[in-house]
Amino acid sequence: MRRVLLLRLRSLGDAVLMTPVPTALKAWRPALHVAVLIEEPFAAVFRHHPAVDEVISVPPDAGLARRLRCLGAIRRSRFDLVFNLHSGSTAGLLTALSGAPLRVAYAKARFTPLCNLRVPPSESFWGAKRVHTVRHQLTPLLHLGIPVPDAPRLELHMDPAARQRVLEQMEQLRLRQGGFIVMQPFSNWVTKEWEPARFAELARRLKERYGVPILTLPAPSENERLERLLSLADGAIAAVRDVPLDEMMAWIEQCAFLVGNDSGPAHVAGALNKKSVVIFGSADPQVWHPWAGEYELLTPDFPCIPCAGDRCYEFDSPRCIESITVEQVLLAVSRLEPF
Asked: Which of 17, 113, 114, 260 has its CA 20 to 30 A from that of 323?
């Protein structure tokens, strides 16, 4: 076996939590060519990973036909082994049609019958009812007899040019390393997004307590929600707009700590061993808590957690995340002793 492809199309958090997989493959066979196929917005997670030899990116949300155009390149690469770590339709088809002699997918993934090795539930490998995503993504290696570390380490490596651009912006804004807070107030799911008014109040209270700037790093798709947040915050929050992922990671690398929703940036902070306070809603904190770094979790106590998360199935609004108060978050921050 010489060439391996890992499919992990989305999202940011999943990609960060997958970084131990190529490391384990290289530790097993150092001469192995390890490639990662991922959506372009998240490719920066792997571009400087020392165990990744090739990054193949596909456009996000561009329709199945366009996303399958990379299939020719995959087949020409003649991979010996393809791991489908995503389980969605596109990843399932790409795996099934890759031409690789060994095609591995989770037993419950889509198009798994077209693969020739199905991975049993992760719980059977780790002896736990709920398995963290880091270990879940290492399970296919275990199933093949490939050794994995007892304490997997996340690997997030900065683009030097992106880091330099952020340092230059920090100088212009008169910010110093460890002298500002990153706030992550947005999420793709309403059940995982704390109320903007509470983030605004939290920002005012944090700025009053610690006297440091509070930055948010919104994606372009979040501009409408950003404007509402800024209007509520009365100048307590500053936004660095249109930040590409490589620079967003560099901003988090320079901050004192991150506070915000359960989201990709929280996992970036963990991978960089930054302190973080993470507000959970519909997701299972045992499966999605930051893998590394010092952190505090705000977790609601509702019997319906976890749920699918695309909407609230029990109430007229997501009471789970709505139950978390500003005072609770402030107490969690103080326990971290960030300054």
From this structure: 17
